[in-house]
Request: fold
Amino acid sequence: MANKDVIQEILSLIPASVRLVAVSKTRTPDEIIEVYNEGIKDFGENKVQELSTKQPLLPSDIRWHQIGHLQTNKVKYIAPFVHLIHSVDSIKLLKEINTQALKNDRVIDCLLQIYIAKEETKFGLSDQEAIELIEDFNNSEMKNVRLVGVMGIATYTENEKTVRKEFKSLKQTFDQMKDLYFKNDEAFREISMGMTSDYRIAVEEGSTIVRIGTAIFGTRDYSKK
Ligand SMILES: *Cc1c(COP(=O)(O)O)cnc(C)c1O
Reply:
């Protein structure tokens, strides 16, 4: 396993201010520990079941990121420990996160997932929907969630121009939101964009968090599970 070299290479390609989240879906606790031992403390999972099973088996100083679609009825399983939820796509979900965070006496940081790809996908908000959500949020009294930025997934394509355009549009959306609603809010600062195939472009376009799985752990084998 060339984890060490690969991680060092990725870290050398992204500015120190950009956070690397190692996407550990389908990986075993042993595989995760290997990467953890290289100094990586941020790990991302896309399934609640998998995340809540692994979390108690691994070091408690790991910052766990929920990066995949989150169903309202599953928030309670990750609320005690999750560090950042990247995939908020409705006010209903945000309200449930607030409820569960309150029960755990925590404030949970969240990103709004914005739809930027050309592909049809069920998940993510349009810019307009995101703005409505922020206005609803501002008119509510949710004290146990904090909106800290946006997340997006670009089209899976070799066409660099398409990907770059999509990342640019997410950065623009972020800038508009910042300007309109979060001007004096230091916490609203994150743009989660960039995966194995496109993180270099994402960083050039202003990403603050990259989510990388395959480049760190190798190709995923879904049949193993
Ligand atoms: C799986 C996944 C990633 C990582 O993808 P790789 O191509 O393996 O780097 C990033 N973000 C999300 C939302 C994912 O589901």
In short: The chain has nine helices and eight strands.
